[in-house]
Amino acid sequence: MKVLVATEKPFAAAAVEGIRKEVEGAGHELALLEKYTEKQQLLDAVADADALIIRSDKVTAEVLEAAKQLKIVVRAGAGYDNIDCEAAKAKGVVAENTPGQNANAVAELVFGMLVYAVRNFYNGKAGTELLGKKLGILAFGNVGRNVARIAKGFGMDVYAYDAFCPADVIEAAGVHAASSQDALFETCDVVSLHIPATPETKQSIDKALVGKMKKGGILVNTARKEVINEPELLELMAEREDIKFVTDIMPDANDEFTKFAGRYFSTPKKMGAQTAEANINAGIAAAKQINAFFKDGCTKFQVNK
Ligand code: NAD
């Protein structure tokens, strides 16, 4: 089988070597398309691929149409909104992600941005500490659980809400289970977003919700920009001069948010999963999943069932 790694933004060399070892070790052929600049290059490269490993690369209906032999596409990472899952399903192509592989990397970045925010973006003035503050985790998945673990090290009082994870599972992890999303925002000094971008969550972080936060509330986003209702958050930040917003996904309205000097920060490029460890882990996991799929039809991580 031919396994194509198509990455506009390439994996680290160590990750490519790890992928190669897995793929060739299982008797498959590895092809690489890195740093491509034109869609046509991707359309040409996928034509004879049986399997595809991608990062943030877009696998649209057009790409799937060009990939006549494709059986499986694996997004090395957690979010898979860059794959047209419905189109893949219609063509009988299995779409998978590699959950959990970059969760610690993202969780550590939450605290990088959070310390920066509570210390007033290092402007020389006294800030506050995290010890004893209430942290709200919206969605208790792979990233959320890592955030909880690290938050306890800081001595924070940790709360979480997840629409699909039962309260007793959250409590068993030593975290207070909030009764609702609203309650989480009302209770906590900081809320960190870890929800996927779905029809239910898109635009859901709006003025009414964030407006429930106490004075000095901090919103941290390492999820997706689409979950934020940007016009409403801008409105709230104009009305509430105490609210801070730090994000790893630059909003469309970055220029407008930048006007809130000392209360807003965005990484210039999404940095959450950008660690050597996460990069290597996710790439190798993708290769292993493809091997398992070809060996015995394993679709454990399929996201378009
Ligand atoms: P995950 O699938 O392990 O967890 C997602 C959690 O969200 C699940 O527990 C699920 O029950 C919960 N959930 C789904 N819909 C919900 C809703 N409407 N309300 C409340 N909870 C809901 O995913 P993860 O690995 O924890 O990643 C979370 C998100 O972080 C990803 O979807 C992705 O968008 C983002 N992410 C960003 C980066 C980055 O570089 N900044 C890297 C990895 C992931």
TrEMBL record:
Q: Which Pfam families match?
A: 2-Hacid_dh, 2-Hacid_dh_C
So where does this one cross the membrane?
none
Q: Which UniProt keywords apply?
A: NAD, Oxidoreductase
Q: Where's the D-isomer specific 2-hydroxyacid dehydrogenase catalytic domain?
A: 26-304
The record's section on InterPro entries has:
D-isomer_2_OHA_DH_cat_dom (IPR006139), D-isomer_DH_CS1 (IPR029752), D-isomer_DH_NAD-bd (IPR006140), NAD(P)-bd_dom_sf (IPR036291)
Ranges for domain D-isomer specific 2-hydroxyacid dehydrogenase NAD-binding come to: 123-250
Q: Which family does it belong to?
A: Belongs to the D-isomer specific 2-hydroxyacid dehydrogenase family.
Q: What name has this protein been given in UniProt? A: 3-phosphoglycerate dehydrogenase
Q: Which organism is it from?
A: Xylanibacter caecicola
Mind giving the lineage of the organism this protein is from? Bacteria, Pseudomonadati, Bacteroidota, Bacteroidia, Bacteroidales
